[in-house]
Amino acid sequence: MISRLAYLSLLLSTIVVLTDAIPAFVPVKSERSPYGLAQRRQSKTPKNLARAQQKFDEQLASTIASVASKYPVDYLSNVSDYSMWEEFQDTGKLPEPINGKTGATSIGPENVPLDRQNPDTYAPPNTDSGTVPQGKWPFSLSHNRLQNGGWARQQNVDVLPVATAMAGVNMRLEEGAYREMHWHSTSEWAYILNGTFRVALVNSAGQNDISDLGPGDLWFFESGLPHSIQSTSKGGGEFLLVFDDGSFSEDNTLLLSDFISHVPREVLVKNFPGFVNADFDKAPNSELYIFPGTAPAANDSQQVASPQGKTNSSVTYKFSEQEATQLNGGSVKIVDSSNFPASTAICAAEVTIEPGAMRELHWHPLSDEWDYFISGHARITVFAGNTNARTYDFQAGDVGYLTKSNGHYIENIGTTPVKYLEVFTGPKYSDVSLSNWLALTPPAVVKQHLGFTDATIDKLDRFKTKNYTLVPDNHAQGNQKRDLASHLVAGKRSWA
Ligand code: MN
Ligand code: MN
Question: Ligand 1 center to residue 296 CA distance, Å?
Answer without folding.
Answer: 21
